[in-house]
Structures are given as structure tokens and as C-alpha cells.
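Sequence, please.
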């Protein structure tokens, strides 16, 4: 195997690592101003308030949380802070997101009772624990209803020999999975679910957890469902196994109605006559059940703290007004973002998105902080800058935790002193950033988040589990990133190119290690994609400031020289394309195929055809993002393989053909 030529490698390295330094991107004085002003305590106080509300979309409690955010913004000097409203009626289509009706609850309780109706124990209460009622439950009741265990409720065997009419079913699945059959077809009165928390290394360890439950917003089968812990479910199962009858009284007063999505937004306006109308947009998502502390009160209060910090520093003259605008947005997760961008129309003035979703988990949550740079379909220098800030915070906080005096310990007086140890990633799915990054909008950015978190979507996602130090650091990273991008101009071009060249070299080793999975021809094509990504990262600077032919040429030549260092050459192998078809996006249909509580693809594609699709998750998301009117199916396949590893081309072709069938691509 060919080895790297060390002298050539050192020659490439020497001018780069000497200069690739965060303080070349952002002056140390600016970093100091932001670090001193940003407060984990302030963020935690706002989080304590927000976690008091059960923040389901378009509900009165969501509105109360939104009013708190707007009130704080106004107190911080954002006189123009406002709440935008959009119909939540169950019919209006915003791009690929069908608006969902508001859901409100007046009362819900589940009591175990004796044969003669005497109450024994209350197992669920909306007032005490809103999570104990599955979202989109409707009014209903049951009196003395027997409990029947249907297990997962996904196979015929789960129902064999069981009479369900008028009874309550116990299931390990989410309520929406069993509602159609158990309630709609077999007449069950309602559902009791013990769906465990999302799969992590700690899955099912803590059997006290009650998980957030869902019913299908748009299902014709309307029912109610209660959520209980795995521990309580196991007790029920042991009693049922002994032949004991377990009876319940259940009452729910709840339902869907027309309402309004509320979206809070505020702006620090840009000052530059040429680029002042452009915006760097900060986002989080304000919805989720009570308490919902890390998910996602933490992200909401972190961008609120970034907003407060930057506004105060600008108002006091510590920092000059930004060249571009800094906008802050608090929507409902994914659906609110799709609605906002679809209604905004022209989004070309949004230059970047900084998204925060779960950024405050303390040691009890077992969380790992991550900075994700976005999909390969959208190469941008922005991710490299975000990672550079992350590395800076990692280094400073690790040294501080080890007893070294550093200028940026970034510790809150009420928080931990742990090192940050953030992981730097590429694509990561599951929140609003993926809407900004999607092919309809192509807005690059970074995504700050914790994963895993063993208490996500449960009653233990409480304010007590949040570390103010992590809130401070997340707000610092976000504030520095936004400030840098808002002010990006000619002076920032050269140090940013230095950073890109250094990172291109570092990524070379990672790419080389992954090549063994491919045959010679695919290996060559995957390498070509990787180096094209590096060139596009360089070109992305042009969206903020002029590169100049000299600097751009030098950087692209550097990337070409890097490709020659690989032990595996990029072969000029001609392979007749098996799938030469080229698709273009239908620009009238804006958004992702799957949103929150609604799937555009599943809604429109015949059920049997949808079930046959094998490409899913991030790969399916990227397949649509890569449709640009010039790439063939073969090209898209190679880009997907470069990002995710070997994928059957037939799966890619079938997915794109399905999108053509519903007129998303043509």
C-alpha cells in the first residue's frame, strides 16, 4: 500500500496549523466580552419558568410559555419582539406540513377500582402529571373496565382469543400504533401504554419513567390513552398472569379544535447598507410536554440568553452593531419551522441557521454534547467555524477541570466545573435544523444538542437535571458563531480559508479509513465526492464575502494536491450508468417529506408502495436534498455512499421514483 509522503505532508501542514486558531476568526477581546456577559444562571431561571407549562402545539399553555419568552425579550430591550400566528386547523397546508389542530385538556384521570366500583389507586392524572395522558386523546370514559394485555399489539397473535369490547388494553407500543385495530376494529374503550423511553444504553433500567405518548392527530379513530411506567405495567402483568381481574374507571375531557400556532421572534437589525437585510437565524423549539427541561426548554433559554448577551453588548457599545441581522425564533418543533419558512416565501436572505435542541443535560442525564455541522448535500464553511468554536471550548474547559488556569473556563456559579468534551459531527437528524438544511431552502448552519439523554420525553426531564454551566457554554458557542457570521466580511476570508485547508487535511485520514468498504470503482467515485465537498466548502465563503480568484485558486489547488496524497488513487474508471435518469425538484412543493405528526410522503403515496420503500431516515432525506436537475440517480447514489457507506442503488432509484409519483420531483 502506498504511504503518505511525510515531507510533502509537512509542507502542507506548516503554514496552516500555525495560523488556524479561533482568535484569528474572532478577536480574544470579543470572546472575553461574550464570555463575561453570558449567564447560565439567567438561562436557568427562564428554564425554571418554562418547565411549568405543558407546551403542546397551539395550546393555551404553549401560548403562556411564548408570552414569557416575548416578555423577557422586551425586558432585554427587544421592543419589536412579537408573536406571529398561523392557523392550526387540521387542513391548511404550509409547504409539506399540514397544520394540526390545537389540543386542549380540561381533565383526565385513571383509577383502579374494585368490582363494586370503590376507588383503590389513581394511576394517571392530567393535573399532577400531564405526561400521563397521551397527546391528541379525546373525551371519553370507562367504568369498571377490565384490563387486557395485548403486548406490542402489532401481530395477530397479540389479539388471539382476547375479547376487547369495552375494555382497556395494556400495550408496550405507542398508543397510535394499536389504536386502529384495538379500538377502531375490536371495540376497546381506551388504551394504557407503557411504551419505554427511547433506546439508549440505559433503556428500561429506570422503570419509574413515564414516557410521552402520542395518538395520530389525523386518524379517523378517535380515542384516549393513558401512559404509565414500565414498573407499574410489570405489576399489572404479574397480577394478570395469576388470573386476577384488574378494573379501571377512566375519564377524559379533552379534544382538538381550531387554534393558532404561536411563533415568537425578535431581531437585532443589521447595520450594513449592503448586507443589513441578510439574517443569521437562531432557532430552538418551544413545544414539548411538561416538564420538558432539556428537551427543549434548555435550547429555548440558551438562545434567549444569546439574544440578551448580544443585545446588551451592542447597546452598551462593548460590541459594534452587526453587519447582518441576528434573528431569534421560537417555533413548535419542525412543523412550526416548516410553517414559518413556507410562509416567509423568499428565504434567500437567511444566510445561516444556529439551532439548539437539548443543550443543558447534567451528569444524571448521561448526556453527551454534540455540535453537528450539517449534511454533505450542503457543504459550508459554517460547520468548520462551529467546530472550531467547539474545540476552543473543549480545550479551555478541559484544562480548567484539570487544574490549569485558563482565560475561558466558562463556568456558571450555580453549575458544574466539568469539561465540555463536545463531539463534532456531520449530519444529525431529528430537529428543526433539518428543515433549514433541506433542499427546498438550503440554509446551512450548526446544530447544538445532547445525545444520549436517558430522561428524554419522560417525567424525569426536570429542571433539577439541568446544568447551568452547560447552558452558559451553549449560549456562548451560539453567540460567538452568530456574531462571527453576522460580521463576516473581507477580513474574515483568509483566516477562514486557513481553517478549511487545515480541516481538509484532517478529514483526509477519516475518509481514507472508510474506503475499505467499497470496491475499486466505488472507492474512486466516493473520493471524488469527498474532494468536491471540500471545494464547495471553499466556494461557500462567496455567499458572505468575495473570495478573489487568487485565494480561491490557491485553496482549490491545495485540495487537488491533497487528493494526490491518498494511498488509493482516484481512478478514471468508466462504468456505464445503470440509472442515468436526472430529476429536478418541483419548486412548488417546499419542505421535507416527514415532519412532526404528519408525513407528506406517507399521506400521498399508496400504502402498499410506501411499505415497499427501503431507503429511509437520513439517507432518504439526503436523496431528495441531492436532486438538483443535473445529478443522475447514479450520482446521487455515490453522494449517499460517500456520506453513509454502501447503499443498494435500487433502493435509491425506488425512492426517487416514489417521489416522482407524488410530483415532488419530475
Amino acid at each position: 500500500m502506498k504511504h503518505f509522503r511525510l515531507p510533502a505532508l509537512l509542507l502542507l501542514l506548516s503554514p496552516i496549523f500555525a495560523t488556524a486558531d479561533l482568535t484569528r476568526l474572532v478577536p480574544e477581546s470579543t470572546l472575553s466580552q461574550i464570555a463575561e456577559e453570558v449567564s447560565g444562571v439567567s438561562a436557568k431561571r427562564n428554564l425554571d419558568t418554562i418547565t411549568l407549562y405543558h407546551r403542546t402545539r397551539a395550546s393555551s399553555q404553549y401560548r403562556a410559555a411564548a408570552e414569557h419568552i416575548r416578555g423577557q425579550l422586551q425586558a432585554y430591550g427587544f421592543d419589536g419582539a412579537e408573536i406571529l400566528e398561523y392557523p392550526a386547523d387540521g387542513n391548511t397546508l404550509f409547504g409539506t406540513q399540514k397544520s394540526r389542530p390545537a389540543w386542549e385538556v380540561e381533565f383526565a384521570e385513571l383509577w383502579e377500582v374494585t368490582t363494586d366500583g370503590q376507588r383503590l389507586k389513581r394511576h394517571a392524572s392530567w393535573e399532577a402529571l400531564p405526561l400521563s395522558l397521551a397527546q391528541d386523546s379525546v373525551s371519553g370514559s370507562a367504568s369498571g373496565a377490565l384490563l387486557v394485555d395485548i403486548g406490542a399489539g402489532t401481530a395477530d397473535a397479540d389479539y388471539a382469543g382476547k375479547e376487547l369490547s369495552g375494555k382497556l388494553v395494556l400495550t408496550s407500543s405507542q398508543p397510535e400504533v394499536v389504536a386502529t385495530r384495538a379500538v377502531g376494529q375490536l371495540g376497546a374503550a381506551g388504551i394504557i401504554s407503557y411504551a419505554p423511553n427511547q433506546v439508549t444504553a440505559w433503556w428500561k433500567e429506570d422503570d419509574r419513567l413515564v414516557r410521552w405518548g402520542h395518538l395520530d392527530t389525523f386518524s379517523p379513530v378517535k380515542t384516549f390513552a393513558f401512559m404509565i411506567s414500565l414498573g407499574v405495567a410489570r405489576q399489572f402483568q404479574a397480577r394478570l398472569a395469576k388470573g386476577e381481574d384488574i378494573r379501571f374507571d377512566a375519564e377524559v375531557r379533552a379534544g382538538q379544535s381550531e387554534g393558532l400556532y404561536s411563533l415568537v421572534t425578535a431581531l437585532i437589525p443589521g447595520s450594513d447598507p449592503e448586507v443589513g437585510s441578510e439574517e443569521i437565524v437562531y432557532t430552538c423549539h418551544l413545544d414539548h410536554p411538561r416538564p420538558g427541561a432539556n428537551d427543549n426548554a434548555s435550547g429555548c433559554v440558551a438562545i434567549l440568553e444569546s439574544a440578551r448577551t448580544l443585545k446588551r453588548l451592542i447597546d452598551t457599545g462593548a460590541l459594534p452593531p452587526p453587519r447582518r441581522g441576528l434573528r431569534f425564533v421560537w417555533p413548535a418543533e419542525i412543523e412550526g419551522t416548516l410553517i414559518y419558512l413556507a410562509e416567509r416565501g423568499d428565504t434567500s436572505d437567511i444566510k445561516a441557521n444556529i439551532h439548539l435542541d437539548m443543550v443543558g443535560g447534567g451528569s444524571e442525564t448521561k448526556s453527551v454534547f454534540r455540535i453537528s455541522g450539517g449534511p454533505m448535500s450542503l457543504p459550508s464553511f459554517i460547520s468548520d467555524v462551529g467546530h472550531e468554536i467547539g474545540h476552543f471550548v473543549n480545550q479551555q474547559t478541559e484544562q480548567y477541570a484539570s487544574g490549569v488556569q485558563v482565560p475561558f473556563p466558562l463556568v456558571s456559579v450555580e453549575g458544574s466545573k466539568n469539561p465540555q468534551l463536545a463531539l463534532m459531527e456531520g449530519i444529525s437528524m431529528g430537529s428543526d435544523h433539518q428543515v433549514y438544511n433541506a433542499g427546498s431552502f438550503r440554509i446551512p448552519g450548526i446544530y447544538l444538542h445532547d445525545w444520549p439523554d436517558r430522561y428524554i420525553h419522560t417525567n424525569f426531564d426536570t429542571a433539577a437535571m439541568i446544568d447551568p454551566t452547560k447552558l452558559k457554554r451553549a449560549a456562548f458557542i451560539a453567540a460567538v458563531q452568530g456574531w462571527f457570521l453576522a460580521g463576516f466580511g473581507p477580513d474574515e476570508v483568509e483566516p477562514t480559508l486557513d481553517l478549511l485547508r487545515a480541516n481538509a487535511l484532517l478529514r483526509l485520514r477519516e475518509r481514507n479509513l472508510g474506503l475499505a468498504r467499497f470496491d475499486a470503482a466505488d472507492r474512486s467515485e466516493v473520493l471524488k465526492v469527498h474532494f468536491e465537498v471540500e471545494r464547495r466548502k471553499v466556494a461557500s465563503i462567496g455567499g458572505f464575502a468575495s473570495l478573489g480568484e487568487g485565494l480561491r485558486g490557491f485553496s482549490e489547488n491545495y485540495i487537488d494536491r491533497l487528493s494526490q496524497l491518498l494511498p488509493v488513487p482516484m481512478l478514471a474508471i468508466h462504468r456505464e450508468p445503470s440509472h442515468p435518469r436526472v430529476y429536478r425538484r418541483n419548486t412548488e412543493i417546499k419542505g421535507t417529506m416527514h415532519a412532526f405528526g404528519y408525513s407528506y410522503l406517507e399521506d400521498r403515496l399508496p400504502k402498499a408502495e410506501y411499505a415497499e420503500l427501503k431507503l429511509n431516515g437520513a439517507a432518504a432525506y439526503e436523496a431528495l436534498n441531492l436532486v438538483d436537475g443535473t445529478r443522475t440517480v447514479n450520482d446521487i447514489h455515490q453522494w449517499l455512499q460517500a456520506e453513509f457507506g454502501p447503499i443498494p442503488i435500487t433502493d435509491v432509484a425506488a425512492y426517487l421514483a416514489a417521489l416522482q409519483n407524488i410530483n415532488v420531483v419530475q
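The CA atoms of residues 213 and 393 lie 37 Å apart.
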